[in-house]
Design a protein that fits this description.
Chain B: Belongs to the RNase PH family. Chain B: It comes from Homo sapiens (Human). The complex is a heterodimer of chains A (257) and B (302). Chain A is an alpha+beta fold. Chain A contains 4 helices and 13 strands. Chain B has 302 residues and is an alpha+beta fold. The chains are: A alpha+beta (257), B alpha+beta (302).
Chain lengths: 257, 302
Amino acid sequence: MASVTLSEAEKVYIVHGVQGHTDILVGVKAEMGTPKLEKPNEGYLEFFVDCSASATPEFEGRGGDDLGTEIANTLYRIFNNKSSVDLKTLCISPREHCWVLYVDVLLLECGGNLFDAISIAVKAALFNTRIPRVRVLEDEEGSKDIELSDDPYDCIRLSVENVPCIVTLCKIGYRHVVDATLQEEACSLASLLVSVTSKGVVTCMRKVGKGSLDPESIFEMMETGKRVGKVLHASLQSVVHKEESLGPKRQKVGFLG
Amino acid sequence: MAGLELLSDQGYRVDGRRAGELRKIQARMGVFAQADGSAYIEQGNTKALAVVYGPHEIRGSRARALPDRALVNCQYSSATFSTGERKRRPHGDRKSCEMGLQLRQTFEAAILTQLHPRSQIDIYVQVLQADGGTYAACVNAATLAVLDAGIPMRDFVCACSAGFVDGTALADLSHVEEAAGGPQLALALLPASGQIALLEMDARLHEDHLERVLEAAAQAARDVHTLLDRVVRQHRAELRGGHRLVLGAGFPAADPAHLHVGERHGLHHGGGAVCGRRPCPGFCPGLRRPPQEVGGSASGLA
């Protein structure tokens, strides 16, 4: 069948880092695609991270590709479980059509703590996404037609309750810190990335950096990560709901504000 | 063309504008603290961000350094979510490379590159949302960003697109009008002298009509100049008022009596030293004519 690309549900969410100015822009576009062979009743998410040259001139051309791939792969991993996003809601007709959500992350300014900021922005963008409701009409010959609802506001929202956020814990000396700035990251030889849901469930964990961590500190850092993660989710939830409640006349956070 | 009517009988376009009317322009300078200069512009629904780093030492091969002037390096990138249909790669494709070259050509004509020999100026433009007139929005944003970085320029560079429908020249085309397939003209102008920095035309246009379309684009560019000038003055007034003190990394806190525009010097300062890195010498050795008044001279910003 001819490829149908419906991208009405693009949503852009800007999250401004409070300290150290980490600026991320996340756009979610929904397009029609074919479900994966091993999961015929589900849609899927595709992540792409663009480290723009405006963050630092080293990212010009293909310079930012390495970091971008690393962040995208981390995002794939944290979403690679049954509970993060209910992919069955993205299915339109099994084995034939499904929604593919392209989550595009644009890194504009890099001020430390990238993974955390990006995961927060992705969660907020997914919350904000509105996917148009479609119906599959089958006529006598058996050929299927996809019909879009007439009402432009008739759409499905994703439940982001179980979408995890990343908390990066940087080991500096014998202690560890969260939400490190660029300078703090430079002092840290090893960090632990913990992906935590709002209920405190850890979905993914990874150690990064050239230094080493001893097992005691890993458990400590994981506990801190869970605690901080729960608080982070609670505050993100309140911010996002408050913004939503302001309705269409709300002040959009942007560069002009 | 059947279907969509680009210009109604009463003279209104698809979005309700008149033939020569521009879309609403909003702009802001200094949006990023880390970059040397940055600016954001919205022209209708087209949103572009420009970031400038420089002048600094040549990155990569030293052999590329030019002995008598600065190297201008531009990259055009448009976000994957910027267009209606998702783009696969933000930059690196043919169109982005071509746009980068065009931007470079445009700014080499305007920036006083002789003042910074053997150095490099990087201009990175990012399109966040594309609704027609992306080249023009990029040029306008880049002008503001270069000014924010304090790199001396001959003049503002103002750009606008124009088209031709039913015997009327349209200024500032939106995506719908561009996609209709008529002739499109992109013009980058140096308003004070009226010189053209870049002129590009697509599709067929009878030469009798060229002058009208060119004049429509030039008038629109001059209107853009008025707006950009206002934005620059407003930005400077904000800084002067002390509301937004922008301090470069490692630069000592400014004495309010010598508050410079973002610790850099602005349009007319042609100091031989790399701008923004050293205190203002108090005079403009690079220029042969006295500094022009852009709401006050560099050293007299008290």
